[in-house]
Amino acid sequence: MSLAVVTLKKGEGRLLKSGGMWIFDNEVASIMGSFVNGDIVLVHDFDGYPLGRGFINTNSRIVVRLLSRDENTVIDEEFFEKRVRDAWEYRKKVTDTSSCRVIFGEADFLPGFIVDKFSDVLVVQSLALGIDRYKEMLVELLKKVLAEDGIRICGVYERSDVKVRKQEGMEPYKGFIGEEFPTLVEIVENGVKYQVDVKDGQKTGFFLDQKYNRLAIQKLCRNARVLDCFTHTGSFALNAGYAGAKEVTGVDASQLAVDQATANAALNGLSDSVKFICEDVFDLLPKLEEKGEKYDVVILDPPAFTKSRSSVKNAVKGYREINLRAMKLVKDGGFLATCSCSHFMDYQLFTQTIGQAARNVHKRLRQVEYRTQAPDHPILWSADESYYLKFYIFSSLQRQIGKDEMIAGCFVNHNSECTESGIGK
């Protein structure tokens, strides 16, 4: 094990000291001793005070990913087994484990390592150089821990085909870990069946983080007319259909996603009530408005419009546009479910953006629920990257414009007096 020592600059390491897991390259004063990127190193404050040990990678802006705050901790198989076991024991207490995220990187103190379980199949993402050295060991340890609860894993597939690996000095990769197996896996979530394509589906094949948000919309959808935008493989639409919606339309720009969603509808016997179309949501919503279409429930589950701080401004425009268009399609007293999965579109900015959209279209929003990602994607305080999903359900009401507001021009000119959120106004 490397004995190299990373020493921080005076006044740096604030994120680490407040509970975070990362040290950035601009926080480092010196690195003393020999090492190879991916090795485990000691971390000291500017005055020599020990802060722990973690993986080093000078190819990355995140130069150290912390593993332990005790510099005397031995990082060996026993250490990793405890981390894996703790992650699984936590999931057993907080979620339905038939399909769930078993390991969520930094939030489970295994930085850069993600594992999703789909029935008896594991899908792995290895996103950091240091943890990549241990991925086979971690997979075997997880299979061992699951076997103790009678769960036999039939196959493991790696989906590390992501650009972020290049920032770590690694190439994107995907393929089997161990023996090959059929990569179309059937799961059941909230009573709904899905075929999950772990080989060619988005990310790990299915978005488990919305599990309980999908469940939350079921109670709103009985006998309802529902529009599900950015439907992907149809998960929100199918939950609406399963709950007894009379008519559901799911929309996605990917024909592959629409085909998968249509197959999932057939799998659940919902082909008559749940239909899918391949269209760009930004183009479709104005067309529906022009036709005078109205829905009892509109759902917005877009992909991340921003993956960096530099593009947040454009992302705000996108979120505002789809939300104001969606609000126009919701019947008075109907429901809007809207979310953002971008870490950089934080809670405050997302809320403000929805409020602006509501003002622009003279809507009064009554908040029903605010939710985040499912608990198998835990949010580690001081690790802001682990808190990324924001999910609102609103009841949407027509807002009457008063005489004074018309004179002030609040809804036309967006004067400074009217900058409060439209939510609940």
What would you note in describing this structure?
The chain is α/β, with parallel strands linked by helices and 425 residues long. Helix content is 28%, strand content 29%. The chain contains twelve helices and 20 strands. It has a seven-stranded mixed β-sheet with strand order 16-15-14-17-18-20-19, sandwiched between helices. A six-stranded mixed β-sheet has the order 2-6-5-4-1-3. The radius of gyration is 24 Å and the shape is globular. The chain starts with a strand and ends in a 12-residue tail after the last helix. The model is unreliable at 406-422 (pLDDT under 50).
Mean pLDDT: 92
Q: Which class of secondary structure composition applies to the elements?
A: alpha/beta
Percent helix, as a range, is: 25-40%
Radius of gyration: 24 Å
Low-confidence stretches: 406-422
Number of strands: 20
Going across the major beta sheet, what is the strand order?
A: 16-15-14-17-18-20-19
Distance between the termini: 60 Å
Principal-axes shape call: globular
Strand composition percent: 25-35%
Helix count equals 12
Largest sheet: 7 strands, mixed
Provide key terms for this protein.
six-stranded mixed β-sheet; 12 helices; seven-stranded mixed β-sheet; 425 residues; globular; alpha/beta; 20 strands
Fold topology:
Elements: E1 5-8, H1 14-17, E2 22-24, E3 28-32, E4 40-44, E5 50-56, E6 62-68, H2 77-94, E7 99-104, E8 113-118, E9 121-126, H3 129-132, H4 135-147, E10 155-160, E11 173-176, E12 184-189, E13 192-197, H5 211-218, E14 225-229, H6 235-242, E15 247-252, H7 255-267, E16 274-278, H8 281-290, E17 295-300, H9 312-329, E18 330-340, H10 347-360, E19 363-371, E20 390-398, H11 403-408, H12 410-413
Parallel strand pairs: 1-4, 9-10, 14-15, 14-17, 15-16, 17-18
Antiparallel strand pairs: 1-3, 2-6, 4-5, 5-6, 7-8, 8-9, 10-11, 12-13, 18-20, 19-20
Helix pairs in contact: 2-4, 5-6, 8-9, 9-10
